[in-house]
Task: structure prediction
Amino acid sequence: MPQHQYRAFKNTFGEFGGRYVAEVLRPPLDELEAAFIAAMNDPQYRAEFDSICTEYIGRPTPLLHARNTSREIGGAQLYIKLEGLANTGAHKINNAVGQALLAKRMGKTRIIAETGAGQHGVATAAICAKLGLECCIYMGEVDIARQKPNVFCMELYGAEVRPVSGGSRTLKDAVNEALRDWASSFANTHYLIGSALGPSPFPDMVREFQSVVGQETKAQLKAAGATPDALVACVGGGSNSIGFFSPYLESETPRLIGVEAGGRGMNTGEHAARMNGLGKTGIVQGYKSLFLLDDDGQVQATHSVSAGLDYPGIGPQLAHLGSIGRIEFTRATDTEALDALKLFARNEGVIFALESAHGGAAALKLAAELPPSATVVVNMSGRGDKDIFITAREIAPESWKRFLEQEVQTL
Amino acid sequence: MSTTAIMAHMIPYFPDRELSYAAAHGLIDSKVDYLEVQFPFSDPSADGPTIEDACGRALASGFSTARGFEFVHTLVDRGAPPVFIMTYAGIAYASGVKEFCDLAKQSGAAGLIVPDLPYDYDEGLYEAGIAQGLAVVPVVAPSTTPERLAEVLRGRPEYVYAALRVGITGAATELGQDNLEFLDRVGASGAKVLAGFGIRSRDQVRMLSEHVHAVVVGSAFVKAISAAAEAAGPDEPAAAAEAVYSAVETLVSALRPD
Result:
């Protein structure tokens, strides 16, 4: 964790961000902001965070020079930050550890969290098990159905997984349900948000705890003698991208590229892309940002093959950095993500999470356009183990079906 | 004549357009003192399951912001008591907060309640509302700190909505010394206190009567409307409208202290 004196942050990023919550939620947010700033300036807290990073998360995670792929495409040198090798399988654990330690400092005994793909839920449940905190995870029924392995793991860690049946039964509805819980439970409960969104101070907090990914990558590139021309990361709410990009937000280089879920293609309307004019400025779930909304401000349905990218809003700092042109945004479709996933598995022996494979797909395209002297780095924010029920069905449907039938027989 | 006013909460287009008009007529005819008309939002994160479900059904039945204002207009023309439009920041912001205030005024509404546009993140709501002569009603909770409560009251609002407990709408509320002292603190400013969250019985209304200007009853009406509509079934719309109309009348008289 960076050792500079942590300053009080602004609660807004350009026109975005803010703390648009009913008075009932003001005390816990104000309390959280004060506790966060105090913790960031406390060497003991930082030392504890760093120690868990090393001995539990397995930091630093490797930076892989994807030599086979770079050679095959004949373009830029492609590097992959293997963040998915972090314990529990994704970058989500960094923020979960930071906030769980903070919650303990604040004397909270219970943690609630929302989860979409389930990676944040798994990370939260794991660190709660380790720190002895009660844990309750809200998860949409649709996501529970498509991410069963993660539900199993959360329960194994001792967390309660509460199905959310309201609305679209996905991530945004899990956030609503967690906010409802927190409105009456904040005296002993911390709401551990997993994405770089929500009312302030959450976007600042999540970025700081995820900045470890970007700091490490910067040092690893330096050690490898490489200067990055572009960094690429997938963007749902935006926790992995803002952390990965964080060391470069104030400079003009390298190019920073966020990849949204293009779903079944933009002409189908079934996607989760909010940038490049597709989203509207709105206020949802306590913050102002770009969302997929209708003319009345009602939140619209989204689609992505990956449960972690189908949230209808984007973190406020990313919306701001997009609007001023510091971060470029592009999209990858479901199919492009699956193709990238297959390619990296065969070429590099690495299986991306479906979310991260969107970043992988865009990085491949970009690398092909650049000369071999250029360097492109993609963050594999998660590994693909959790997706086997989706990827196997898409890639090898017949043999997967036979296997499942056989499993059912033996049960 | 009771001393405590009743503010009845309802949702246009829940369970559908016709039945929501029937419910509104029932409330007007049974002489409730105020109407709180909630413009549904897809993500009502401060509401409990009863109102959340009702908002989802209202949207599925064709609610739009324009139809919401038309609904209010129709009720005002029919002699409704003062109507307060309650909604979420996202809905007011989508129209433009100033435009939303203008439309509210044109519809004949008396005021606005937007809990997630607090005074320090209000997007100009208070200024635009007051310029239009609308009462902009801040919402406070027992967890609100004395400092923030003082800030809320500094704007000298005519009405303040006081949530009787922390949490979301619809769950049961135990009324005790703590809630009543909180209401008295809010009322000491001279603002008319509208108290709600978990009010469903005459005993509660009676207990609050000396501490508030009006009690707000929300989820209880939503449940009564829903139950009446369901019992009547979808095949006899006229009978369903009749059933909804009498269900709200019955609930109003059950709430009124003798």
